[in-house]
Amino acid sequence: MMEPLAFRMRPRTLDEVVGQQHLIGPGKIIWRMVEARMLSSMILYGPPGTGKTSIASAIAGSTKYAFRTLNAATDSKKDLQVVAEEAKMSGTVILLLDEIHRLDKAKQDFLLPHLESGRIVLIGATTENPYIAINPAIRSRAQIFEVKPLTAAEVGLAIDRALKDPQRGLGKLPLVLDDDARTQLITATNGDLRSALNGLELAARSTAPASDGQIYLTLSVIEESVQKRSLVADKDGDGHYDVISAFQKSIRGSDTDAALHYLAQLIAAGDLVSIARRLVVIAYEDIGLANPPAVERAVTAVQAAERIGFPEARIPLANAVIELCLSPKSNSAIDAIDAALARVNQGNSGAVPDHLKDAHYQGAQKLGRGVTYRYPHDYPEDWVAQQYLPDRIKNDQYYQPKQNGTFERAFAKQYRQLLAAQRGQQPPQR
């Protein structure tokens, strides 16, 4: 059985690696490690098909060390023992351990002493954020390098190499790749070189030659052969949370087009639950008191989206996102409650004043509970000055109103008037 094109085109040296020049370019960290033959264990993390396995293979090819590949999820501790025995017999072995975030404790405990001795140089590959998903014991013994998504130019370079290479690639086939088909091959796979190469091979080997003997790879052929890859990673993956983060930060930054872009990614992933939750949070956290009606409309839009579902849910969601982007912003509410929580968590804030304590039980009056409480509705304007905070923190002020929008400017004016009246500086103005 023929190995897939992506496997056959795997780099043999660092010079053949496409992309990742921040790691393997001349003078960069992995390049220097290989040049000095001072390899240390490392963890490579990034999206699928961006070169993690290629870098490991190139390191092995450049150093001439034995190279073995295992999967932390599917291979057993016995498989690790085989690699360890080989390392004892022949010297250093480079072990590419795919899905390293799935490494269980038994395998980890077996590996650790071999990593310490240097007999096994571990190159862990993962799509998950290692600072979150990988055990600290492994993480502390490896350098962590992020593998970046490949650019369109880099994917195009790899495709051209595969088309020309007669030994490992498709160079022996009479292929003609149309320009628009090449563009589709690059863009549809979204930087996943493995998908691009394997899609190219499927198209090449499943298309019959034309009457002139040429195999024409047209746009329609490529579209049928390449599965379009979403920008959004698995809903439990690191990339998914990056998109959610970018979504909120774009709305907070009032960039309507960026916010719609990230909303579209989440819609393409079908993740209405995350969109709904995040949009409500954004409305209250980032717009808040600057524009309460916009907050209410965002909540209504989320409820409508949840009721009608996709694809129509995109319409109320887009309405809400655009309005929130263009709305005045204020985070004064979240700042206020966080300041109050900080005070509570510090402790030592004092007791509830006696006049505010519960007085609805027999004997409360003897204890002085609620005796001097002033019922605001008994006073003009339904307000009367009295102390509500504990004595120890009676001058605390948590809410710091902003002036971003008509509503919060009005709230700010009322807040300051009430605060001044409460402290006996002037009566409130209604």
TrEMBL record:
Q: What start and end residues bound the annotated signal peptide?
A: none
**InterPro entries annotated for this entry?**
AAA+_ATPase, AAA_assoc_2, AAA_ATPase_RarA/MGS1/WRNIP1, ATPase_AAA_core, DNA_pol3_clamp-load_cplx_C, MgsA_C, P-loop_NTPase
Domain AAA+ ATPase: from-to ranges? 38-150
Q: Which residues form a coiled coil?
A: none
The reply on keyword Membrane is no
This protein's source sits in the domain of life called: Bacteria
Asked whether the UniProt record includes Nucleotide-binding among its keywords, one would answer: yes
By sequence similarity, the record places it as follows:
Belongs to the AAA ATPase family. RarA/MGS1/WRNIP1 subfamily.
Write out the GO MF terms: ATP binding
Gene3D superfamilies assigned: 1.10.8.60, 1.20.272.10, DNA polymerase III clamp loader subunits, C-terminal domain, P-loop containing nucleotide triphosphate hydrolases
- Keywords of the record: ATP-binding, Nucleotide-binding
What's the protein here called? ATPase
**Pfam families per the record?**
AAA, AAA_assoc_2, MgsA_C
To which species is this protein native?
A: Limosilactobacillus fermentum (strain NBRC 3956 / LMG 18251) (Lactobacillus fermentum)
